[in-house]
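Final paragraph of the annual report: two paired records, presented back to back.
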Amino acid sequence: MSTTTTTDLRSRMPNPLPFVPEMAEVGAGLHNVLKNGAIPPTTISLLQLRAGQILGSTYFTIRETNNLRAIGESEERITALATWQDATYFTDAERIALELVEAVLTPNPSGERVPDELFAKASAHYDDKALWTLIMAIAHIGFFTPAALIAKPIPGMPPGQNYTG
């Protein structure tokens, strides 16, 4: 079985910034919100890793797995994220964040994606600033999802070096 390394990978499209430089400002604003201190970086990365799993994005899953390892998260917590509902590794606040991202990203043909009950649970764990930060963490993934799925940046490569061509 052969393995492909990041040096063998190519993105589908070149770096977007020469074509749409405005994207950098929007992306930087979203990144800054995530660093406002209202939500622990671990929770943000867990939420975004789960989003990457749901979306089927190798780029997001590798990026957030690397981020979680860099901040000292255990392999058990990283691996158990795919089955977080049954895993004992997550706090109640983390579970609410994961439940929110799943609700937003998973179609619900029989009703609201984020029902009042889920919002009430989230409000019990997070104040307004933290809730808005969670919303922006999900929006951050939403903003970059088309690029991740269509342009296919190279997984594991840092921003600015994750596009070829």
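The closing record of the year follows.
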Amino acid sequence: MSEIVTAYWESFAKERDLDLECPVAWAFGYGAEMANRLGALVVDGIKTASCAAYCVHEIEGEAIPVVGEYNIVLDGKNEPLVIIRYTEVELVKMNEVTRDFARSEGEGDLSYEYWYDAHVRFFTSELAQFGLTFTPDLLLVCQRFEVVEVR
């Protein structure tokens, strides 16, 4: 973890009298452009949810987020952008994601159709890296969050 991320968390935790270790820090999607674009939607309050393929969590040994847990979202330069706290986490098949959840991801025209098409492309590409094939019943980790600090 970078010194900037650690210092940012330590300052945040001290101001709020939190006795917690520095949480996971990550950027949305792949690449600086996507991290900046999606991160800006979070800062603007448009993006209040995200999802990930459950199988990728398993393959990478990554823990499933827990309600109340903090994370640090990074920008395209891997610098802290915001601190979020999870408000809801559930496992849902992709073809069972609600229109409300799709809208809360804040992307494109906010329609379910845009969300579904964009996520088919994203997960098809991501799963191919692991030799897996996308199917409409792909199990997702659907996460809603609130921004608790903007850097």
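Strands lie at 25-26, 49-53, 70-74, 80-93, 139-150. This concludes the annual technical report; the extension proposal builds directly on these records.
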